[in-house]
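Re: beginner question about structure tokens

> Can someone show what the tokenized structure looks like for a real chain? I only ever see the sequence side.

Sure, here's an example I had lying around. Input first:
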Amino acid sequence: MVSKRSRKIAPVALALVVFFSFGVITLPARPLAPAKAGGGQGVSIDRGAAALGQAINRLGVVASVLHTGAHPDDEDSGLLAYLARGRQARTAYLSLTRGDGGQNLIGPELFEALGVIRTEEMMSARRLDGAQQFFSRAFDFGFSKARDEALAKWDREAVLGDMVRVIRTFRPLVIVSQWSGTPSDGHGHHQAAGYLTVEAYKAAADPSRFPEQIASGLRPWKALKLYARDPERRADGAKPAPGILLINTGSYDPLFGRSYYEIAMEGRSMHRSQDQGALQQKGPHYSRLKLLESSVQAEGQERDIFDGIGTGLMAIHASAVAAGMGNETASRLRAALQDAQQAADEAKKNFNPLAPSALSPIIARGLKRIVEAREMIDAASGPEADLYDVKFTLAEKEKDYMAALAGAEGIVIDCIADDDVVTPGQLLRVTLTAYTNPSAKLEAARFSHPEGWEVKAIDQTSADADGRTMTRANYNITVPKDAEPSGPYWLKNPRRGDMFVPGEGRTGIEPNAPFPLVAQVTLTVNGQKVLVNQPVEYRFADKALGEIRRELKVAPAVSVTLSPARLIFPTSANPVTLEVTASLTNNSKDGSRGELSVSGGDGWAVTPPAVAFDLKREGERASHTFKVQVPPSFSARDISVSAEARAGGRGFTSGYQVVSYPHIEPRFIPQSARARVLPVDVKVAPGLKVGFIEGAGDDFPNAVKRLGVDLSLIDPRELATGDLGRYDVIVTGIRVYEVRPDIVAQNARLLEYVRNGGTLIVQYNKNEYAAGDFAPYKLKMNRVPDRVTDERASVRILDPAHPLFNFPNKITDKDFEGWVQERGAYFMAEWDPQFKPLIASNDPGEEPKQGGELIAQYGKGYYIYSPIAWFRQLPEGVPGAYRLVANLISFPKARK
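And the corresponding structure tokens:
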């Protein structure tokens, strides 16, 4: 029992109970998404009267829908918001992948790090549209043109099993596939998602499929309807064809003062890494669904997604009767559910946002009957499996009634830590604060956490003010010395091909690992128990942006990282000196003092051998540069350079990459302090002066600098007024015409630079580039731009004698080996005769595409469009890519 001081009402002690298992987060009395910087992170709109109104509307509803797709951004966001917030259905989106293989509009992260960003973007969107989120273990290996390729690269049965697990876990009445499973879906991942959804819909109901799930406690589930998005993408209300359901997601909701589609587009705009910013358009907007399978009788044209399906509380009774419940128990269950439904209807009718607590007795009465119904089922005879679905639905409704009761009473639980990044062995101070009406009585508090964490209650105080009670309790929590660092759970083990291997205790369908520390508070309101779960957070005041909150994270006392992660350099007959930067971050409250060293291959000289460090403050950082001498003619690509920090008698050889943007929760991606040594047999013309105009973010500038070339970034001012003629060649970053309005405005300056004798290399851009006539001569992309997605696809050099394939490196077929993910994207389909195609490439079974590298003389200079995927090859140290790029930037010298 914790200490307390007296107050006006009867004192309440928060009994401390510590437990170690992670359960479902029952209910946050305030959103899990607190106020963030600049309104980012998909700040939840579930607050105050709007949240209570939604909770009350949900009381008498048992509807549920699962939406499926292949990627983040595939989902019909308007449909999710309409179902979750308009129809109060339990709604979820299942994305087979985390979008790891896509492109990044906002930063340099690719592959797994991009998947972390897009996972968080999904969670930000879900906080707005109100749906839940699931994934499978499939890795997004990049654009695929065929379903068979996707299913061959993925473990087909494993992905299907994940989809079945989601269906059996979420138990939706209706499933809606975003994709049809046919070539009309375009992307092979889309086709695979649509195809597998139909199979998962059937397999989830078959107990002989994936029996290990049944053995672990899940039960088969048969959804009553299966829809797919109508391929006719019309957003208007035109009369649909027979069998097509039209849903107006633009319906206005007075609780929010806007439509579900507007809310959805705010969520859609959280997909910032893939240019999904959208207008929040008012007025009608429609989703069109085609019914594929149904187990219910429907007469004529459907008007509602739940036509023929009972979505009120009495549907629970029907399910119990169908399961064989005895007449006497069924009769008592009917009475309990009727009373609960009556309470739900009465609360909805009497909802007054200015007097919410007046609803508490009504909601409490309904909650009491739901609890009694659940207890009836628990005591009922018969096979447990027969009543599994009834128990599941009643448990969901119990949470809904508790949420509404907490909202009516204005119960708010906050749990704040004195640190956001904790280290193994650290003592953490946590303050739990409960803000309640006096009629809500606090009974107990406990924390869920991983095994080994120790919780000790320190003190408790209570005070009343303006008819509200604030109770505050302080705790000391000790992090175990062997605590595992925080990080995306699906990245803890190496991938197996194109499938993630989740760590122990995770299945792969969860968006993230559970919060490391969650407070659960038990209250009594009108005689009914209410459980409120609140994750422990850290908050701080940004002087410009105000309060910002962060989730609790575990990290090593000293984080050590090494950059660059790949030491790419031209081979040489002489010793080569490489520079690496070892960076330290102190996460210990007591500071860290010790020695930092770097080591390379046997006999390699490192200067300095070691440096001392003394980091006195938590969060303090330091970086030290080391010179590593590589022996002459070194060509092996299996050697690494590593860093180690020694402090307090311990060695630290790992750290983490921080992925942080204003619209998402920052995440740590653990990584070892190791850099691969990747020599490349490449030459570059001497004396080059290269200018680079940054686009959506790629490694081109660093790659060129690794070749020893003098490269400068051209800022907007220099682009507008500077002397561009001082550069031998200018290169634009990827998607520059999409993300840089100043480039669009100053395009004439770039063409003038070429006309006067310069060489301009334009990396890949999307359709707006060709449509905007930015090139000196006409270019055209197909509506669905051409791309070569097989990184092993054959490449044919169309003009072997051209300098671009001969100076200063002789390009051969070998230079197209070892590429990653793809050859390139956004190839041109047509071009003016002034352009000359230089290479042809194609995916298996397709005609050669020649629009993958085009060159044209314009005035005294040359204009080159190169949509080859340099942004993927160069960071990975692909030798042929470096040799080809070296020839591209050396072209001005080849002309002389």
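Each token stands for a local structural state, so reading them left to right follows the chain. The longest helix spans residues 327-349.
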